[in-house]
Write a structure and sequence with these properties.
Layout lengths: L3 H32 L4 H28 L8 H9 L13 H19 L7 H38 L2
Length: 163
């Protein structure tokens, strides 16, 4: 059985780290805008990639600990995102809403781009909507994941009260 309190704490810690990634990304974007220097785009792209990777790390932790599973196959990243937006009856609630899932899928797709092209081929216009929406999607994901973390922490607390 998963230690829900420890998992809840880990989710909270990951969200704190993600907040730093978001701030860093937005700061670098502002420097890029102020200077007109496209070399800053590399740093923005790296931080957008780190943002989704951090979100996905939380998903992997939960699915491994609670579901005792991990999607496999060539589309496992997409499958993981779909899985965490789905309630598993008698096991866990959904981690995120369908709306959050759909928005995060754009960041997952961009991460794939970043991993597979040379940085000088990054398109500022492709990055702009991701940067523009980053604060909002982070706050939305944080709200969903905090709610989930609080819910699973209560399970351990209720279990310890009944002992």
């Amino acid at each position: 059985m998963a230690n829900h309190l420890a998992l809840s704490a880990r989710i909270t810690k990951e969200l704190q780290e993600l907040e730093r990634v978001v701030e860093r990304c937005l700061d670098i974007w502002a420097q890029s805008e102020a200077s007109g220097d496209d070399r800053y785009i590399d740093g923005v792209a790296l931080n957008l990639q780190s943002f989704y990777t951090g979100i996905e790390r939380i998903f992997e932790l939960v699915v491994a600990e609670i579901d005792q599973d991990h999607p496999t196959g060539p589309n496992w990243h997409q499958e993981l995102l779909r899985l965490v937006a789905t309630e598993v009856p008698k096991l866990r609630p959904a981690l995120i809403s369908d709306t959050t899932r759909n928005t995060l899928d754009r960041y997952r797709g961009f991460r794939h781009v970043v991993r597979n092209i040379y940085s000088f081929n990054l398109d500022r216009e492709q990055i702009l909507p991701l940067v523009r929406d980053l604060r909002y999607i982070f706050e939305t994901a944080r709200s969903d994941l905090t709610r989930f973390a609080e819910t699973i922490a209560k399970i351990d607390l209720e279990d310890s009260d009944s002992v």
